[in-house]
């Protein structure tokens, strides 16, 4: 590997980590945000739903934007907007400020998520082997760091802006410096950009991957939104113990993604995705049947190990298969469109489990994401490329596939 690619991989991993920190700082301090602005329980779901909806708009807009500018440039300027919007959420006082800050956060997150994964897919193509899970492992690590910082802020009763300001002051300049070494995919000639504009037209094969992405985020949002309530209200744990499952889930997600690329290289993406779906389904089954809190935490541990591989491999499969169509820009278009279903799953998951829990039972509600995640088995072959270049490493990438650095190297 060239120094350009190594620096590109490191800088992109840092960007994933920064995004994990920022997102965790926002979502784990929602009660503090609600108290600061006086947001009622009835209005809170509106604010929470607006962020993923606007993020979806941002992702779709990024598909069009990268026809004119490289994804590295979108990422370079969307990440500071996310961090500054986070600081604005913590520093404001009026409802209008919160609405504007969350709108900016959502739109920028959509562009950031899409462009990060575009760069990750193109770097994996240049490396000629699976590295996509390592980027999402950095995101998981950032989430753990962000959640830990949020806990410190809440524990010591720090104002939101006091919690957010040091993080932004450290991460924003570091992200801007690191952005010098982002590596884009192969350049498009001007005459190819017209072809790229229609690249998304032939992406019907993307639909199974969109379904898998949605299901994965339904599972993830179920854990993030309902694990504490489930452990306390259904399994009878203490309030303190009820905070443990999500932390365990995040740690096992990090561990699974850290070693996941090795599994993809040795076993192939299809086998890893099937195993992940089965382990995740087993986790939901254990949670639903758990007689007590400790068994319930075992179920959430299995969920982290199973779900962690699905999202990175779905992005990797979409980018790889789009690239194999030979259409300029098809890979970026596929990643941007697939990224929208990240937010669809997030929007559907929490209300779905809550409605089923109230109408039926929370144990029964846990069986629904279990069945949904098993749908991944039906579409597992969608993760198999025409030739397993990047999972098994049987074929080296062509010279033209090695990207260019965003600073012109």
Automatic annotation (TrEMBL):
Its main location: membrane. Residues 389-409 are annotated as: Disordered. It holds the Pfam family MFS_1. InterPro entries: MFS, MFS_dom, MFS_trans_sf, MFS_Transporter. The chain crosses the membrane at residues 12-30, 42-62, 131-152, 158-183, 195-218, 267-288, 294-319, 340-356. The keyword Ligase does not apply. It comes from the Bacteria. Coiled coil: none annotated. Keywords: Membrane, Transmembrane, Transmembrane helix. It is found in: Cell membrane. It is a multi-pass membrane protein. The keyword Repressor does not apply. Residues 391-401 have a biased composition (Basic and acidic residues). Residues 206-409 form the Major facilitator superfamily (MFS) profile domain. This is MFS transporter. It comes from Streptomyces labedae.
């Amino acid at each position: 590997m060239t120094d350009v690619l190594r620096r590109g991989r490191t800088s992109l991993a840092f960007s994933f980590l920064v995004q994990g920190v920022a997102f965790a700082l926002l979502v784990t301090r929602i009660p503090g945000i609600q108290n600061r602005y006086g947001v009622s329980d009835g209005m809170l779901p509106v604010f929470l739903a607006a962020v993923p909806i606007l993020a979806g708009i941002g992702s779709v807009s990024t598909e069009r934007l990268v026809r004119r500018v490289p994804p590295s440039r979108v990422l370079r300027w969307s990440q500071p907007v996310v961090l500054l919007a986070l600081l604005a959420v913590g520093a404001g006082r009026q409802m209008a400020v919160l609405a504007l800050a969350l709108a900016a956060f959502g739109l920028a997150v959509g562009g950031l998520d899409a462009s990060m994964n575009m760069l990750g897919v193109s770097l994996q193509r240049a490396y000629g082997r699976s590295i996509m899970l390592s980027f999402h492992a950095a995101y998981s690590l950032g989430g753990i760091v962000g959640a830990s910082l949020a806990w410190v802020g809440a524990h010591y009763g720090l104002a939101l802006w006091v919690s957010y300001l040091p993080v932004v002051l450290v991460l924003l300049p570091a992200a801007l410096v690191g952005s010098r070494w982002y590596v884009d995919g192969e350049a498009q000639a001007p005459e190819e950009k017209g072809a790229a504009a229609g690249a998304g037209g032939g992406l019907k094969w993307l639909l199974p991957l969109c379904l898998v992405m949605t299901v994965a985020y339904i599972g993830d949002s179920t854990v993030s939104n309902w694990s504490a309530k489930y452990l306390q209200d259904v399994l009878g744990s203490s309030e303190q113990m009820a905070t443990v499952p999500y932390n365990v889930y995040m740690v096992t997600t990090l561990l699974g993604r850290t070693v996941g690329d090795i599994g993809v290289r040795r076993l192939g993406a299809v086998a890893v995705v099937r195993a992940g779906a089965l382990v995740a389904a087993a986790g939901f089954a254990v949670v639903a049947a758990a007689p007590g809190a400790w068994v319930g935490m075992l179920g959430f541990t299995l969920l982290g190990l199973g779900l962690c591989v699905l999202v990175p491999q779905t992005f990797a499969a979409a980018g790889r298969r789009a690239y194999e169509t030979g259409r300029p820009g098809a890979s970026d278009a596929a990643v941007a469109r697939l990224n929208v279903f990240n937010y669809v799953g997030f929007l559907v998951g929490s209300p779905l489990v809550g409605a089923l829990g109230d109408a039926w039972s929370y144990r029964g509600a846990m069986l629904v994401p279990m069945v949904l995640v098993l749908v991944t088995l039906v579409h597992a072959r969608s993760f198999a490329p025409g030739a397993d270049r990047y999972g098994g490493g049987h074929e080296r990438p062509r010279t033209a596939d090695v990207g260019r650095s965003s600073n012109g190297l």
